[in-house]
């Protein structure tokens, strides 16, 4: 058995013909997921006993065949990416059933979910549970992993915690993107595609030798498309594509034992995103219409009404150097990287044409990583891998909410004012409040900014990890692995709340007024007789006695307690030892089985948002958010309490994963079947939810999922390949009493389809001995009907969680490519051919109680492609 690996191991410098490899790969099984997948730039020879191709992956940080790799791993090849028109990681989920990618409010915000576990990336303080690595370099935020994927060799999706193989953030799984390294034979490709919505994609790459020991490669892509949604009142398209990327590589092989690969890349996104539609227009819609605003309740009309065109700008760039030294029995790999990410977005957060409020967020992330691994390749029964990983990242974020020109009028009507009075400028409730509290007239909701925020975080961590393989008898491999991680975060958060109404607590105002101004502090209140305290609280919290209470709903952004402070040090310190135990046995040349127990870890996450609040162990507000009637606490005792300060979450503690898994991998002539059964749980799962005006970060006590993954490939005749991949998940909140929806203990977590299927049929027709081929592919992606979430904190809570929105996915994609032996390829492609429509996700309307907004799925896209490989 012979194989060649072009990434992470050594390959001959000469004699690899690109055309020969591509032609040889034509008959290889092109799987949608964890079934067989051809390494497009690696040679594939038949195993003597099975006649099946050898598929080389580096999922375990060693070069192994997919058949020998004793973990659940899905592999998608560069050839499948081309045929299925998979542009970025967002599209990858259509061919990998264990993976789900959820698009959020901007081009740069997405959530990667494996086996039902994942965290929202709409907050840069939250570490992802699914780690994304591109050429061995950790991309800490999804915005740094969403550029188009040029020149990809394969994408490996590793299911379950991978702490013993990766040094950072792998409590739920890993997405590992492996690109082609430079070759010592001149070659390349150029591709142009045109589709509906004026979609134009141009990609090119070239590689070749500079000398006998130095090779280079250059690749780039340009992706533009009109928007498939329309901002009606601004006559502007939305959900467009406007992105490009470029990358250069150098490969040095000064000797047979030393290889150095240097990569530099840059990508940019400048798009108008993302389409938000209205599922339910709540009671506030009347006020919007009364002031001349508009919204569209036809969810899949792709029509939006906004007062500002959204801005999404992302710059992502950096470089890495990988050094591989091979002495024979010992190999050493070092990967050093530095990356910068700049992310800016400006959006209309009320998603109506009424000028209510806009948000600006400007984020910058700088990341340095260093990994080093030592791997053995002894002839004896014992082998090992030992590695170290260092991570140093800094995050800076400034953001603000701008008051729109109509926000005051909008809230006046919601407070009960006559729309005619508001429109004509007659004195209203807010004018009366300004007079009563001594505020300047026309100051409530009339300041230029509602809030401004400044957040920063420095994260340093290091880990030591490794595995030991022991083969006591031929075919039986016992593996032990470990990871020790030490993680430190230092963060600072400050906010300025400019609205004067938010600076007043109505319970405290009543108490002060009822006592003639003699009780204005917690100490003075505590000195009163208990009966007097109870009477004051009873009256102050009775809306029939204290009419101001109804206005508390308009205090969206109260004063913010800056951190660090005398009570909160703005630090998290975590460390954890995790481990792996596994037994793998080769029953026959065609059958491998394995069983494993592993643990995983992810460090604390920080709520870098205006909704970041002290823990209830540091502060508890009194009734109605009162400070005067608040019980004693560290923050109150230190004199730090602010009006309307309430407890919440500054950060969420670590996640600790545990997985039991058994697997079967069978490969015969014309058939492969891979099955994994698992029982996976995460203690302290970091749940992140939007509440309508902010974000809540909570630790679930325990969330678990049981299920299985099945992947199969059938080749009934030469040129015809069927694949079928399926994931079944049975999730549960074992313990989650503190969610924003109340006690979810014993409830099935929503947003996790019970059944996900990815299946395909590929037929390659060869024209005699000419080398010409016609490749036809059809694939189908299904997610069973399931709840989108467990409810919405505002909308569903008011209905007793009786109206839960659901989704089902049924996507059919197809392509046909004529590949000529002279390197020219001409093809047609289509995605979502039957225009399946479903809800991506939903959320409470911003400052619009009873309104539900959401993201609609993308419509059908299709086009043609011309490609030349040389």
TrEMBL record:
Signal peptide: 1-37
GO CC term (a single one): cell outer membrane
Boundaries of every TonB-dependent receptor plug domain copy: 66-174
BP GO annotations: iron ion transport
Membrane topology reported for the UniProt record: Multi-pass membrane protein
Keyword Membrane: yes
Limits of the TonB-dependent receptor-like beta-barrel domain: 290-833
Keyword Ion transport annotated: yes
Subcellular location: Cell outer membrane
Entry keywords, A to Z: Cell outer membrane, Ion transport, Iron, Iron transport, Membrane, Receptor, Signal, TonB box, Transmembrane, Transmembrane beta strand, Transport
Family per record: Belongs to the TonB-dependent receptor family.
Protein name, per record: TonB-dependent receptor
Source species: Parerythrobacter jejuensis
């Amino acid at each position: 058995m012979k194989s060649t690996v072009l990434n992470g191991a050594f390959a001959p410098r000469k004699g690899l013909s690109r055309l020969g490899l591509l032609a040889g790969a034509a008959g290889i099984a092109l799987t949608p997921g964890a079934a067989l997948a051809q390494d497009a730039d690696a040679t594939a020879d038949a195993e003597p006993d099975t006649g099946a191709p050898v598929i080389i992956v580096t999922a375990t940080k060693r070069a192994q065949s997919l058949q020998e790799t004793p973990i659940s791993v899905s592999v998608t090849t560069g050839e499948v990416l081309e045929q299925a028109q998979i542009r970025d990681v967002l599209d990858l989920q259509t061919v990998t059933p264990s993976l789900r990618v959820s698009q959020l409010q901007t081009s740069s915000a997405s959530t990667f979910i494996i086996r039902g576990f994942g965290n929202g990336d709409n907050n840069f303080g939250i570490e992802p549970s699914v780690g994304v690595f591109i050429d061995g370099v950790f991309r800490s935020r999804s915005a740094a992993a969403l550029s188009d994927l040029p020149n990809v060799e394969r994408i490996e999706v590793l299911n379950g915690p991978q702490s013993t193989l990766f040094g950072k953030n792998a409590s739920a799984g890993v997405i590992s993107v492996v690109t082609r390294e430079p070759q010592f034979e001149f070659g390349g490709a150029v591709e142009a595609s045109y589709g509906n919505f004026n979609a134009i994609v141009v990609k090119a790459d070239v590689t070749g030798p500079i000398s006998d020991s130095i090779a280079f490669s250059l690749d780039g892509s340009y992706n533009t498309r009109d928007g498939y949604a329309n901002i009606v009142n601004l006559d502007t398209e939305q959900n467009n594509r406007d992105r490009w990327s470029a990358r250069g590589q150098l490969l040095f092989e000064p000797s047979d034992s030393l290889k150095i690969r240097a990569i530099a890349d840059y990508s940019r996104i400048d798009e108008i995103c993302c389409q938000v539609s209205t599922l339910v227009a709540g009671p506030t819609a009347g006020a919007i219409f009364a002031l001349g605003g508009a919204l569209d309740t036809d969810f899949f009309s792709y029509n939006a009404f906004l007062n500002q065109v959204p801005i999404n700008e992302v710059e992502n760039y950096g470089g890495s150097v990988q050094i591989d030294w091979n002495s024979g029995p010992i190999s050493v790999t070092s990967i050093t990287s530095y990356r910068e990410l700049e992310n800016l977005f400006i959006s209309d957060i009320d998603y109506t044409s009424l000028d209510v409020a806009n948000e600006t967020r400007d984020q910058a992330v700088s990341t340095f990583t260093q990994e080093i691994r030592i791997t053995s390749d002894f002839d004896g029964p014992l082998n090992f891998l030992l590695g170290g990983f260092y991570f140093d990242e800094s995050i800076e974020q400034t953001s603000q909410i701008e008051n729109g020109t109509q926000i005051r009028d909008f809230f006046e009507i919601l407070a009960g004012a006559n729309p005619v009075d508001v429109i004509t400028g007659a004195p209203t409730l807010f004018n009366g409040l300004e007079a009563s509290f001594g505020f300047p007239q026309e100051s409530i909701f009339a300041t230029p900014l509602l809030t401004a925020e400044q957040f920063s975080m420095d994260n340093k961590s290091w880990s030591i990890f490794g595995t030991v393989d022991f083969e006591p008898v031929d075919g039986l491999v016992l593996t032990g692995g470990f990871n020790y991680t030490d993680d430190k975060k230092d963060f600072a958060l400050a906010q300025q709340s400019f609205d004067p109404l938010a600076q007043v607590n109505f319970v405290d105002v009543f108490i002060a007024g009822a006592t003639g101004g003699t009780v204005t502090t917690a100490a003075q209140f505590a000195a009163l007789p208990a009966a007097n305290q109870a009477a004051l609280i009873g009256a102050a919290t009775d809306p029939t006695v204290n009419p101001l209470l109804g206005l508390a709903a308009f205090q969206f952004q109260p004063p913010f307690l800056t951190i660090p402070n005398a009570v909160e040090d703005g630090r998290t310190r975590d460390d954890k030892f995790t481990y792996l135990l596994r037994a793998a046995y080769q029953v026959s040349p065609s059958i491998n089985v394995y069983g494993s127990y592993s643990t995983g870890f992810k460090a604390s996450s920080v709520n870098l948002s205006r909704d970041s609040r002290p823990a209830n162990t540091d502060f508890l507000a009194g009734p109605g958010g009162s400070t005067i009637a608040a019980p004693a606490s560290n923050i109150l005792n230190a004199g730090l309490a602010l009006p309307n300060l309430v407890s919440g979450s500054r950060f969420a503690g670590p996640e600790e994963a545990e997985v039991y898994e058994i697997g079967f991998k069978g490969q015969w002539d014309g058939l492969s079947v891979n099955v994994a059964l698992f029982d996976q749980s995460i203690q302290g799962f970091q749940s992140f939810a939007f509440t309508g005006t902010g974000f809540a970060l909570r630790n679930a006590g325990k969330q678990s999922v049981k299920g299985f993954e099945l992947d199969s490939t059938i080749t009934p005749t030469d040129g015809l390949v069927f694949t079928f991949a399926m994931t079944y998940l049975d999730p549960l909140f074992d313990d989650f009493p503190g969610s924003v929806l109340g006690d979810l203990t014993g409830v099935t977590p929503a947003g996790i389809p019970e059944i996900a299927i990815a299946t395909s049929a590929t037929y390659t027709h060869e024209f005699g001995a000419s080398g010409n081929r016609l490749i036809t592919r059809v694939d189908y992606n299904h997610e069973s009907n399931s709840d989108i979430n467990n409810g919405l904190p505002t909308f569903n809570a008011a209905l007793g969680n009786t109206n839960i929105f659901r989704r089902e996915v049924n996507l059919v994609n197809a392509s046909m490519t004529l590949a000529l032996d002279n390197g020219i390829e001409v093809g047609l492609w289509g995605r979502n051919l039957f225009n399946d429509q479903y809800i991506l996700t939903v959320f409470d309307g911003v400052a619009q109680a009873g309104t539900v907004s959401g993201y609609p799925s993308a419509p059908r896209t299709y086009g043609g492609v011309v490609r030349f490989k040389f």
